[in-house]
Write a structure and sequence with these properties.
By secondary structure, the chain is of the alpha/beta class. It has 10 helices and 15 strands. The structure holds nicotinamide-adenine-dinucleotide. Nicotinamide-adenine-dinucleotide binds next to helix 1.
Length: 348
């Protein structure tokens, strides 16, 4: 069978990662790359990839079974709509769009045309996350009570040379926390209330550098997230899960997530399951079982899922409707902090 033919829009950091992932498979091929910049063209030349100045030219060239949209957030809506209009399924990088209204527009267009849109919340494809979801949703922790998430790390100074990263919207809430919000929704359940305090005291930029977030879930569980991009710690999924090759391995195992319930608790990424063998009591010894950890690139699994959606009609693991809920909850963090008030989330 001919390789699954994927067009990539945007030859930046994540677009190149997708191209590398595709190149390493035996089932997919890059149909071409669209990027208006000289750097994008040079990259394609160097890699022997077909270059196009924009996604329209890439689509017009034909032979594209799916698009990966790896461009700046504000372009996700127009490029996504064009893909749908041409009947081409798209994997759009996170966030699905810039506003909830835009996300809903994409979801409605995808639904009307019957053309799937997937959103690049890649952590969902990590086998560790899949095991955590099965354990929690299968009742392995009993009734979920709390989750504690540490998402603290230090962004190097050069990161802030790009102006948009110093402005509201370019900070760790929309760039990083959105991954945790999606992970919590996926593993633990829907978010119905959001409280948050953000701070810009350390870097003194117009964008936040630190946040304390409290999420209420529909099932009654309470989740706290500590977020900072100016803290020297290894306590984050990115730095502890080994998911991305550009972060170094840590010298000792690190835990970033603590999920607790009435029958047991689970840590991530290590997948330690803590339970009582006999009577449940804080005076009784508690046992630890290490659940098997499978390491596999979530980006590769995401690509293979995209192929299954396009070729076999599989249901997207995360579509535009679902990703818009993640965006809504993430934007509510900013709103809660700004208003100093709890935000309630309703889903129609
Ligand atoms: N899932 C993940 O792990 C992950 C990681 C990083 C970034 N992202 C998301 O991916 C997207 C891109 O982020 P990045 O870090 O790669 O950004 P980047 O700035 O490194 O790259 C963006 C690229 O898009 C190109 N571009 C801009 N407008 C374009 C257009 N209209 N058509 C074609 N190309 C265009 C730019 O020239 C640039 O090469 C963002 O939405 C970001 O949130 C996801």
């Amino acid at each position: 069978m001919a390789p699954f033919s994927v067009g990539i829009v945007g030859a930046g950091a994540i677009g190149r990662l997708h191209a590398d992932v595709i190149a390493a498979t035996d089932f997919a091929a890059v149909a071409g790359v669209a990027d208006p910049t000289e750097a994008g063209r040079a990259y394609c030349e160097e890699r022997g990839l077909r270059w196009f100045p924009d996604h329209q030219a890439l689509i017009a060239a034909g032979g594209v079974e799916a698009l990966i949209v790896a461009t700046p957030n504000q372009t996700h809506l127009p490029i996504g709509l064009d893909a749908i209009a041409h009947g081409i399924p798209a994997l759009i990088e996170k966030p699905v769009a810039v506003t909830v209204a835009e996300g809903e527009e994409l979801a409605a267009a995808s639904d009307r045309a019957g053309v799937p849109v997937l959103v690049g919340h890649h952590r969902r494809y990590n086998p560790i996350i899949a095991t955590a979801r099965e354990t929690v949703q299968g009742g392995g922790l009993g009734r979920l009570t709390t989750a504690t998430v540490l998402y603290t790390f230090y962004k190097h100074d050069a990161y802030f040379e790009l102006a948009w990263r110093r402005e509201p919207g370019g900070g760790p809430v929309l760039i990083n926390l959105i991954h945790e919000i999606d992970l919590i929704r996926f593993i633990c359940g829907e978010i119905v209330g959001v409280q948050a305090v953000t701070s810009d005291r350390v870097r003194g930029l117009p964008v936040e550098d630190t946040a304390a977030v409290l999420l209420e879930l529909a099932n009654g569980a309470l989740v706290t997230v500590s977020l900072s991009d100016t803290a020297v710690t290894p306590w984050s999924w990115d730095l502890s899960s080994g998911e991305l090759p550009n972060y170094p391995a840590q010298p000792a195992p690190v835990t970033s997530h603590f999920l607790s319930g009435t029958e047991g608790s689970l840590t991530l990424p290590g997948l330690d399951l803590w339970r009582y063998d006999g009577e449940k009591s804080w005076f009784a010894p508690i046992s630890r079982q290490a659940l098997p950890v499978t390491r596999e690139s979530p980006y590769l699994r995401q690509l293979s899922h995209l192929r299954d959606v396009v070729r076999d009609g599989a249901r997207p693991l995360i579509d535009a409707v679902d990703a818009t809920r993640t965006l809504r909850a993430t934007l509510a963090v900013h709103e809660a902090a700004r208003q100093r008030q709890r935000q309630e989330l309703h889903y129609g």
